[in-house]
């Protein structure tokens, strides 16, 4: 039975034994899957905004509203979208056909283009990833893989980053929302909130760098930069959000911490002047 895989901008059916390829065609600028993915992302943003407005105290500042909305959106994206990606990397697969159990095992196709490349989860007769499922969440990642082919399968670097993102960054964003919506946080809780927001924002930027740095250093072979939709919407806009907004969080945290130290310095100077009297 042919296994399904994704080429740059093209969904194909590939028979590992005969090498025959059947092309399903290049995706249109706004395919139904593209439209559905963008609509779902917009609905998640609306949900995050509505949730933040509902749970925050009426006296909350606009800055607190923006911080809460961002972290709620961050949690939902990491949990729903990227959680689905991890699921398909561990549970969605195609079993490679074996015509001769002796000569075909391990199957050459399971080793990708490099015969020394380790097999995913030790299964030498399987190909894992969203490309090997017909679930709606898999179709979403198949669509995104037109821009970055690594997301069609189980890329070890991407999966390693996403494990930290889904299992640590997602819950951390939810906890930050919990701290932000407290009506009268204690000084310890305020300090914890700013510290955790700084940690999370740093991790988001670092994760983005580690996702794309290997591609930049090797000629961007997995990225489709020739299509405007793929380059500016999928790669630049959606990934740029996790650089610009965490960068803004770091700036706000810096302003807050600087203000605290300035107030402490003024208090210390005031205390010294009183002693001198």
What does this structure look like?
This protein is mainly alpha-helical. It is built from 6 helices and 5 strands, in the order βββααββαααα. It has a 3-stranded antiparallel β-sheet with strand order 1-2-3, with no helix packed on it. A two-stranded antiparallel ribbon has the order 4-5. Residues 1-28 have low confidence and may be disordered.
Compact overview of the structure:
The protein is mainly alpha-helical and 277 residues long. The chain has six helices and five strands, in the order E-E-E-H-H-E-E-H-H-H-H. It is elongated and about 95 Å long.
Using only C-alpha atoms, the radius of gyration works out to 24 Å
User: What is the terminal-to-terminal distance?
Assistant: 91 Å
Unreliable runs, pLDDT <50, ≥5 residues?
A: 1-28
Quaternary assembly: single chain
Coarse shape: elongated
> What does the main sheet amount to?
3 strands, antiparallel
Mean pLDDT: 84
The succession of helices and strands, N to C, reads EEEHHEEHHHH
Structural class from helices and strands?
mainly alpha
Strand content: 5-15%
The percent of residues in helical segments reads: 55-70%
Please report the number of helical segments. 6
